[in-house]
What we know:
The protein is α/β, with parallel strands linked by helices. The chain is 41% helix and 15% strand. The chain has one domain (3-251): Alpha-Beta Barrel (TIM Barrel), CATH 3.20.20. The longest helix has 18 residues, at 105-122. The chain starts with a strand and ends with a helix.
Amino acid sequence: MALVDTHCHLDAAEFDADRAAVACRAAAAGVEVIVVPAVERANFGAVASVCREFPACVPAYGIHPLFVGRAREEDLAALRATLLCSPAVAVGEIGLDFFVPDGDAARQEFFFVEQLKIARELGLPVLLHVRKAVDAVLKQLRRIRVRGGIAHAFNGSRQQADEFVKLGFALGFGGAMTHARATHLRELAATLPSAALVLETDAPDIPPAWLGGAGRNEPAQLPRIAAVLAELRGAPYDELLAATSANARRVLPAL
């Protein structure tokens, strides 16, 4: 059964030494599709290059909330042009991050809103970064309706999860869910409707429990992450894979 990694930064410098080997291990593990989201205009080219080199990889383009400090307004025009001229499955990674104490919330919100408008104009789904900012993200999604997408690395409440689902979003679950101490996240993973779930690694970040806190994550870890999700849900592994892959293709129709 094929797997879809809905969020992996394969263009990151952490993979420069062995990117081809990482892609080979992913393929050997049954990962059929890897969504590679950009984080700023400066890495649009790197994302495109990785996706040309490795057939399993598909791009998304966007400006991450933690990169808006060095973004310029003209980067939004460049994003729109890139989305018009290049195949992309989503606008992303975009959103809000209120975890970092010195973040410029107003600037984050400006770039988030403008990118939602681009996604709405072009009929594209979005890949959302929602760390410590779920309600603020939902507020803008209700105001600027887009074609659904994925709330990446979701760790909000059940009520917030249900609101995303109502707006046409799936919720991304990955390595964080594999840690025994993540009791709230594991409860969500176990009890949300199966139609709400997609798998992700966020590689090289958010390593699963068996890699330790400092290990480099990679897409080949996805089958074991999926096995944890299946165990938490008491579901057959193949059934879980089929459901999450179908969900990914539903919310990202260009896959």
